[in-house]
Amino acid sequence: MLTPSRLALARARRGLTVVELASKAGTSPASIGDYEHGRRHPRPATTAKLTEALGFPAGFLEADDVPELEVVTRPAPKRQRDAAISAARLAIGFDAWLTRAFTFPEPDVPTWEHHDPETAAEMVRARWGIPHRPAPNMVHLLEAHGVRVFSLPQDCAAAGPFSCRHNGTPYVFLDPTATPDQARFDTARELGHLTLTRTGDAQTFATAFLLPRAGVLAAVPRGALTEQVVAHSTTWHVAPLTLAHRLRDLGLLTRPQYTAVCAQLARRTTGMARRETSQVLTKVFRTLRAQGTTPHAIARELLLDVEELNGLVFGLVLTALPGEGDGNREGDRDQPATPHLTLVRR
């Protein structure tokens, strides 16, 4: 029997209106509305047509409910926003599957109830044992503290990154089209959204988390020249412009110095070479491969196709190979260090 919420989820994931799905499946918009609200159930043949029209494997529309999510995304067209949230709901379903098979770190993301994002960032840094030094790989760091980090499929990029808590577990969903520097900053900003319980300034939180006041004041000289800003941005794993803004806010660059540095940075291309990706998911797929479980088998069990699954896991289904993603290798000197993380197969 068709599960009404699954039909609504699948339609939203494909970015279809009721009218468009009805046309593709050869039924009426009123019938689609009835099916989605559980007022009546389609015949098996109609369910098969709906499944085919939506491009999901057989059985997807008849599986259990997928949890609803309340999230705030970047302003985007409703279709793309709904598609992104639907992808996040599928990712949480995948995470539930993973949790039944593996033991992950317990969530350890404190909350901050005051209007002071800079202090909140310092609090999280102190709790996680990185008070003043450059933060390691942000995706690995969040995963080591129980945050589940997924990528969004390419067609969901307009919604931007977002985060939420579901049944006590914090989740972060990242924009697949962001540059390596921007993706790292986005990860820190979503950590801010998870930490700041009031409507706080997650942008300020992210800057303070990646560039802690005490650490930057101790490391970067007053009046730094452009080349020095670039060199220190590599140390702190941020874009040079992000560091320049921070130096201005901390009083290490005067307004004329800041303007001159930004003008010179605008004429050059610098930044991280590789995007930070998931350590947990890399280990999961490697472990499953070693045990003979293929990505196709995982996708079949989840009632997804491999392309859909791959879009949620940083492309690791197709690219995870022995030796990748375990941290810094020779030649990866621009990559932040990897926090220790242990994954236990149940």
UniProtKB/TrEMBL annotation:
The keyword DNA-binding applies. SMART domains: HTH_XRE. GO terms for molecular function: DNA binding. Keywords: DNA-binding. This is Zn-dependent peptidase ImmA (M78 family)/DNA-binding XRE family transcriptional regulator. It comes from the Bacteria. CDD domains: HTH_XRE (cd00093). PROSITE patterns: HTH_CROC1 (PS50943). Residues 7-61 form the HTH cro/C1-type domain. Coiled coil: none annotated. Residues 324-346 are annotated as: Disordered. It comes from Saccharothrix ecbatanensis. Residues 326-335 have a biased composition (Basic and acidic residues). Belongs to the short-chain fatty acyl-CoA assimilation regulator (ScfR) family. Pfam families: HTH_31, Peptidase_M78.
